[in-house]
Amino acid sequence: MSLAVENPGRGAAAVIGLGSMGFGMAQSLRRAGLDVVGYDVAAAAVERFVAEGGRGARTPKEAAGDADIVVSVVVNAAQTEAVLFGPDGIAEAMKPGAVFVSSATMDPAIARNLSQRLEALGRHYLDAPISGGAARAAKGELTIMASGSAEAFAAARPALDAMAAKVYELGDAAGTGAAFKMINQLLAGVHIAAACEAISFAAKQGLDLQKVYEVITASAGNSWMFENRIPHVLAGDYTPLSAIEIFVKDLGIVQDMARAERYPVPLVAAALQMYLAASGAGMGRDDDSSLARLYAQLSGAALPGIDKA
Amino acid sequence: MSLAVENPGRGAAAVIGLGSMGFGMAQSLRRAGLDVVGYDVAAAAVERFVAEGGRGARTPKEAAGDADIVVSVVVNAAQTEAVLFGPDGIAEAMKPGAVFVSSATMDPAIARNLSQRLEALGRHYLDAPISGGAARAAKGELTIMASGSAEAFAAARPALDAMAAKVYELGDAAGTGAAFKMINQLLAGVHIAAACEAISFAAKQGLDLQKVYEVITASAGNSWMFENRIPHVLAGDYTPLSAIEIFVKDLGIVQDMARAERYPVPLVAAALQMYLAASGAGMGRDDDSSLARLYAQLSGAALPGIDKA
């Protein structure tokens, strides 16, 4: 007996994109009793979802055709547009009145554009970028920064409740959720760069780095990112939990938005150059704390495990 | 009956510099039972200390002559050097075996130099930069990042206990405390600039700034400084709790240290330019959250109370 039959009132959902975030979100939806179909461009990801009890689809259209809620967990605006309006786009295959829940981080102007085009076809769009890593996705404990019409929120509610510990309702139009996410990414990206600039400078001076971590996390110089990322540097472990390329992308979006609005972002610009340099130096797919290795390489500072890099 | 007679074993202390921090530290020393003499270049500050029950001195030498512990709470390295070795310097007037507790933020190399010169004269030097505002100074709840010889720590102990909630013992030579403080200032200065870059960018996009504060302080983009300073921006109140000029000074020290060590600090450099621009635009003595006003002026973003600025 399927979960959907056990909880018929919960409705049917499709998840497009079964990466580290989407897989966990799909499992959270199943756990909450929704009938979930998963799709990914990588067949292996779909097979894994099926092996763990989910239903798989061969195309986005096949996944979306019967869904009341389509949750899109792709990487960026271009992929989101392709899912909706590309050659195999689902926009017209979606059920009238169904909702598209878009979680990719993107320029708010693009979110507004996608929303307007989809709503013109009689489907709802919820601008719903997510925060929180794969572990929280798997537990259904994400933070979602959402905006959209009352109808979009109402249609998406069972999925939001299943996937998130906290849903911020930020406005009645797409774009506002995206804008809040970009403010968060601006700060997060700059703070990682600052944390790495600081810890490698401490190393350059020969300070006890464990002690630096202890003192800073108890002082006014602390940030969420310093506290979260510097342990990777102290362990010399650059296994990607979140990769350099994510901030190449996200600070790039912030810089482009700011340029279009004639708003100066000198800190973002400086940080973005460091992410680009790290990527250019071959660390693009490594953990974003790899900026500390970049600073060490540029200065001769000695970091733990640096010769393993 | 004086406090010193009530607690003769606590010893005698001098406080050089009775500004917002030094005044509170002197009061904390008195409350702990030390016999405290205060000196400041501003006679009014000494008079206020006397009016509240302290003892005043007319020169630094007069203050330091009988002290077991001299706490220096001046602004920078130049003033610290002048207190010790200037025309009216106290170095040779201090009792042999007494300790000089230096709280100014400075380049570690200068702290090492001052320490070596004072210790050559048979007096101890404790490198002891402080963290925490005037309110915590008054309550004896500062954080002190200290380094120095065992003798310097032992001699300074009654004052450290009286002034601080937390004393980090970071090494056996002057300079290490200063280096830790500079790492903290690097992060604090960049985080204030990032917070202001972000909140004014949110304003430029017309976002609900109270909601931005709520979302960011619960998200990965948070920092101690975002949480502490952005309420000033939301209130439109730039009364200086800590002024722009403090970070003109402190990020200047970091940039100079880094240049000397051939260590690149692109985020510090970008942030320092913004503090310099704010100072140049007339906000040097205003609260450091004034960087938000600078971004608003540069972009036309509308901040609360901005036309009062």
From TrEMBL, chains A, B:
Pfam assignment, any one: NAD_binding_11
Domain 3-hydroxyisobutyrate dehydrogenase-like NAD-binding, residue spans: 175-295
Top-level taxonomic group: Bacteria
InterPro entries referenced in this protein's UniProt entry, alphabetically: 3-OH-isobutyrate_DH-rel_CS, 6-PGluconate_DH-like_C_sf, 6PGD_dom2, 6PGDH_NADP-bd, HIBADH-like_NADP-bd, HIBADH-related, LtnD, NAD(P)-bd_dom_sf
Top enzyme class: oxidoreductase
PROSITE patterns: 3_HYDROXYISOBUT_DH (PS00895)
Catalytic activity: L-threonate + NAD(+) = 2-dehydro-L-erythronate + NADH + H(+)
GO biological process, one term: organic acid catabolic process
MF terms in GO: NAD binding; NADP binding; oxidoreductase activity, acting on the CH-OH group of donors, NAD or NADP as acceptor
EC code: 1.1.1.411
Alphabetical keyword list: Carbohydrate metabolism, NAD, NADP, Oxidoreductase
Residue stretches making up the 6-phosphogluconate dehydrogenase NADP-binding domain: 14-171
Active site: residue positions: K181
Keyword Ligase belongs to the record: no
Transmembrane segments: none
Family: Belongs to the HIBADH-related family. L-threonate dehydrogenase subfamily.
Function: Catalyzes oxidation of L-threonate to 2-oxo-tetronate. Can use either NAD(+) or NADP(+) as cosubstrate, with a preference for NAD(+).
Full protein name: L-threonate dehydrogenase
Taxonomic placement: Bacteria, Pseudomonadati, Pseudomonadota, Alphaproteobacteria, Hyphomicrobiales
